[in-house]
Amino acid sequence: MAWIIQIREQRQPRLPVNRTRAAACGIPIGSSAPRGLGPQGMERRGLLKAAVLVCLLVLCSGRDLTIKHHPSTTIYNSTLAKTLAEYAAAIYTADLTQLFTWTCIRCGDLIEGFQMIDIIVDVENCLQAYVGFASDINAVVVVFRGTQDNSIQNWIEDLLWKQLDLDYPDMPEAMVHRGFYSAYHNTTIRDGVVNGIQKTRKLFGDVPIMVTGHSMGGAMASFCALDLVVNYGLDGVKLMTFGQPRIGNAAFASFFKKYLPHAIRVTHAHDIVPHLPPYFSFFPQKTYHHFPREVWVHNVGLGSLKYSVEQICDDSGEDPTCSRSVSGSSVQDHIYYLGVSMHAEAWSSCRIVMDYSRLRYEMDLNGNIVLSKQPVHKYMSSIW
After folding, report:
1. Which of these ranges, 29-38, 187-196, 276-285, has the smallest mean pLDDT?
2. Any residues with CB less than 8 A from the CB of 119 and at least 6 apart, and which?
3. Paired strand residues for 2
4. Quick one: fold of 78-379?
5. Which residues pair with 249 in a beta bridge?
6. What residues does each domain of the chain span?
7. Distance (Å, rounded) from C-alpha 186 to C-alpha 188?
8. 69 contact partners, CB below 8 Å, separation of at least 6
9. The model's pTM
C-alpha cells in the first residue's frame, strides 16, 4: 500500500491551539504520563510527542492534512517524468547534427551524457524517432516526435471527428485510430526503431527499454511499446507519454493494460489533446477510451498559495476527477509539460537539416534516412 500525504492550503485566519481542536486529531493534550516508564513506554511517549507536534503544526498553519491512498502497483517517479519530458522535447531540435552529437540546447540538464545510437527519419511520411542509451536510468530510450506546430490546429480539428475505424489484430472487439496505428505499423519507422533497439542492447546489454513521446509521438510510442511486448516478446518495456490523444476503445484499453500495467500518461492542466478524439460516456463500448494510468499535472490554490500537483489517477483510464474534470481547451498547455517546452524549432517543412561535412548517414533497406554510429547494413537482416 502506498500513501501520499498532501498539505492543502486553507485561506482562513490562524486560530490558537486549544484542547478541542487538538482532540480532533485524536491526541490527548495535557494528559500526564505515569512515572517510571520502561523502554517501551518511553518509545510510545516519544511517538506521541511526535504525533502531537505534527498535528499542532498543521492546526497552527491553518491547513488540513489529507491522506490519499493509491495502490502500490502504481509506479510514478516525478524526477523520471521530468527526465523523459526533456528527452521528448529534444526530438523537436531542427538540426539533426546537433541532435545526433547531443550538443543541442535541449540536450543538457537531466539528460546530459545521453549516448545517441540512431536517428530514424521517414521522409515520405514526415516521421522521426531516435534511439540511444541513458546511463543515469540504465535504459534504452526510444523517442517519437509529435505533431509540428504549424499543423497542430488542423490536426486537432481532424481529431474532433475521427471515428474508430480499424480492428486491432488478434484482439476481439478492440478498435483503434487508423492514422496513429498506421503511422507506426504501416510505415518504415517501425523497422528503423526496432533495429536501433537491437543495436543498443548489443552494446549495453539486456537493459530495460523506456519508450516516450509527446502529442502524436505519444500515440506512436504507445503502439511501439505494445508491439515490443506482444509481437517481439521483450521484457522490461516501459512507457511514459506526454499529452497524447486517445488511440483506441475500451476493449483496446483493457488489452493494453494487460501487457503494459505500469504505463503512464502524463497530462497537463487544460491540454486539449488528451480530450481527443472525444469520449462519450453514453456510448461506452463505441467510443474512444484512454488506457491507464493517467498522472494529471495541474495547479491548485490561488495567488501566492498556488502550487503544482501531480495527481495519480485511478486505473480506469478515464478518471472523472483528473483531466476529464476540466475543459480541454488549451493548446498552450499542450506544448509545456513539467516546465519543459515542446515547441518545434522549425516547422515550415519536413526538410532534413544537418551539417553534411560533419555527419554521415545511410539509407536503410526501407528508405529511411538513418544517422547511426553503427553501419546500418549489419542490422538489416534480422530482428531478434
Report:
1. 29-38
2. 96, 99, 100, 128, 129, 130, 370, 371, 372
3. 70
4. Rossmann fold (3.40.50)
5. 288
6. 2-70, 78-379
7. 7
8. 1, 2, 3, 4
9. 0.76
